């Protein structure tokens, strides 16, 4: 059965969706303002802004179903496409996840634990919020924050000065600072008829606020807890597709940080490391196909590559190492690709990850 999937956004996530869609005989067509977008070689592309509703209508006319690859897509674009063809995840999920206040209020409604929060729309509201929540605390923009951007940690009273102006005098949210043990994410998928599957919980390690390492945890004691929280959110939003739910772990409890209504960097390991990748399951869900098995195959770790290119020849010579090149020009801090390392057992994985990291250090200038 030949189908066409419209994807708003043609970056690396769109590209990995197109690569997963191809064996299912699903062709992709993209909408993206960048002419040299990373996914443009993998399907036709409409070059237009994400908020161009006319282009969105053209995309809908060319596709049987549609999705988007990241949160910067306006919910109105998804809603416009959904008037013509199935478009998932739903615009409501996008609108909720783009606004930290709406998102955290939803978690509260669903009895999912969150840090203490307060709305902050002015410097005087910030002072009042800090009196309530205490220090340290994290001040974040309500919208358009990612990879640690648009936020400021407040540790001392002096840090409050000008904090609202520093973040651009936009609507903000203050969160209590959580001294978490580690950060976990739960990548899950839901179909239109309510089938739900959840990959192994992923342990995530960040460098300078950007994800560096993701490793699925076989038989994590909080797996059931996390799956229950994701399921509650997915049912509330009548969600279809893959979602990543990021948590802070404190001892044996979880606290919600945020959701991403899309395929997620902490799920890239599933391409080689799971029976069905997050990209294939997302495509399947959005196109109305049965979901695939989410079991992990052996031991897996994913490493992000930023800044400069790694020793690619070195990586390609290593057993169990898979290099994904996003075809992007090097720039400090820019995500250029990722490496998935697989092995039959954790001990072999550790050796292979160490060898792969040697190749990443080459060009990053990291000691
Ligand atoms: P976010 O953009 O909200 O995912 O935040 C980026 C990173 O900042 C998270 O992955 C955490 O490492 C850290 N962070 C965010 N919120 C908090 C918080 N309330 N307490 C402690 N650390 C936080």
Topology overview:
Layout: E1 3-8, H1 12-21, E2 26-32, E3 44-47, H2 53-62, E4 65-68, H3 75-82, H4 91-98, H5 100-109, E5 117-120, H6 123-133, E6 137-141, E7 151-154, H7 163-166, E8 172-176, E9 182-190, E10 196-198, E11 202-207, E12 210-216, H8 223-236, E13 241-250, E14 253-260, H9 270-273, H10 278-286, E15 299-307, H11 312-317, E16 321-325, E17 331-343, H12 346-364
Parallel strand pairs: 1-2, 1-4, 2-3
Antiparallel strand pairs: 5-8, 6-7, 6-8, 9-10, 9-11, 9-13, 11-12, 12-15, 13-14, 15-17, 16-17
The second-level CATH architecture of the largest domain is 2-Layer Sandwich
The value of Rg in angstroms is 20 Å
State the secondary-structure class. alpha+beta
Helix content range: 25-40%
Provide the CATH superfamily of the largest domain.
Answer: ATP-grasp fold, B domain
Q: Report the mean per-residue pLDDT as an integer.
A: 95
Q: What small molecules does the structure contain? A: adenosine monophosphate
CATH class of the largest domain: Alpha Beta
Question: Number of DSSP strands?
Answer: 17
The rough form would be described as globular
Overall number of structural domains: 3
- Low-pLDDT runs of 5+ residues are none
What is the end-to-end distance? 51 Å
Order of SSEs? EHEEHEHHHEHEEHEEEEEHEEHHEHEEH
CATH fold name of the largest domain: D-amino Acid Aminotransferase, Chain A, domain 1
Reported for the largest beta sheet, the result is: 9 strands, antiparallel
Number of separate helices: 12
Percentage of residues in DSSP E strands? 25-35%
């Amino acid at each position: 059965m030949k189908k066409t999937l419209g994807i708003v956004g043609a970056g690396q996530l769109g590209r990995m969706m197109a690569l997963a869609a191809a064996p299912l005989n699903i062709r992709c067509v993209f909408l993206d303002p960048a002419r040299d977008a990373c996914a443009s070689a993998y399907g036709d592309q409409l070059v237009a802004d994400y908020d161009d509703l006319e282009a969105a209508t053209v995309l809908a006319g060319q596709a049987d179903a549609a999705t988007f690859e990241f949160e910067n897509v306006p919910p109105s674009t998804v809603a416009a496409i959904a008037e013509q063809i199935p478009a998932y995840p739903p615009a409501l999920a996008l609108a909720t996840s783009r606004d930290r206040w709406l998102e955290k209020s939803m978690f509260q409604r669903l009895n999912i634990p969150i840090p203490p929060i307060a709305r902050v729309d002015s410097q005087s509201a910030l002072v009042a919020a800090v009196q309530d929540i205490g220090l340290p605390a994290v001040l974040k923009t309500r919208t358009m924050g990612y990879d640690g951007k648009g936020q400021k940690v407040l540790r001392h009273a002096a840090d409050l000065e000008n904090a609202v102006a520093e973040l651009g005098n936009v609507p903000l949210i203050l969160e209590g600072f959580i001294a978490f043990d580690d950060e976990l994410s739960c990548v899950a998928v839901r179909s239109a008829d309510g089938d739900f599957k959840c990959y192994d919980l992923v342990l995530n390690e960040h460098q300078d606020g950007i994800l560096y390492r993701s490793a699925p945890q076989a038989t994590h004691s909080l797996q059931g807890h996390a799956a229950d929280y994701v399921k509650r959110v997915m049912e509330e939003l009548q969600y279809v597709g893959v979602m990543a739910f990021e948590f802070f772990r404190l001892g044996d409890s979880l606290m919600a940080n945020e959701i991403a209504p899309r395929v997620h960097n902490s799920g890239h390991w599933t391409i080689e490391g799971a029976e069905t990748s997050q990209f294939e399951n997302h495509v399947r869900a959005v196109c109305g196909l049965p979901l695939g098995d989410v079991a992990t195959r052996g031991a897996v770790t994913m490493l992000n590559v930023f800044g400069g290119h790694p020793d690619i020849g070195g990586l390609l010579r290593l057993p169990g190492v898979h290099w994904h090149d996003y075809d992007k020009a090097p720039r400090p801090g820019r995500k250029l690709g990722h490496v998935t390392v697989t092995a039959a057992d954790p001990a072999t994985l550790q050796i292979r990850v160490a060898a792969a990291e040697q190749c990443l250090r080459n060009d990053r200038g990291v000691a």
